[in-house]
Design goal:
alpha+beta, globular, 2 helices, 45% strand
Length: 100
């Protein structure tokens, strides 16, 4: 169960996402939920790319929470963990993962 996304603009292109879910199989499920939020947010703001900065995941009593930081940009950013927002958002929609 996807329980919601909170978004906070930290600075111009730096974003913070807090996601919560139940029934995650592993940390990667929470990471993916945050990634879907970042991709859709980038598209809403008119940007085509995002770069993952960090994600912290905790699980307590079956509730999984992740807080993630991403940057968004109009051109392909430097870094190892970058994503094409349109491709990721489409994949999220096809897999039933909600976003912002």
């Amino acid at each position: 169960d996807y329980l919601g996304i909170e978004t906070l603009l930290l600075d111009g292109d730096l974003l913070y996402f807090l996601v919560a879910m139940r029934g995650a199989r592993e940390r990667q499920d929470v990471d993916r939920y945050a990634q879907c939020a970042a991709a859709q947010y980038a598209l809403i703001r008119g940007f085509g790319f995002a770069r993952h900065v960090r994600t912290n995941v905790v699980e307590q009593g079956g509730l999984w929470q992740g807080d993630a930081v991403y940057t968004i940009s109009s051109s392909l950013p430097d870094g190892v963990k970058k994503l094409d927002a349109e491709v990721v958002a489409q994949d999220c929609a096809e897999n039933g993962i909600p976003s912002v």
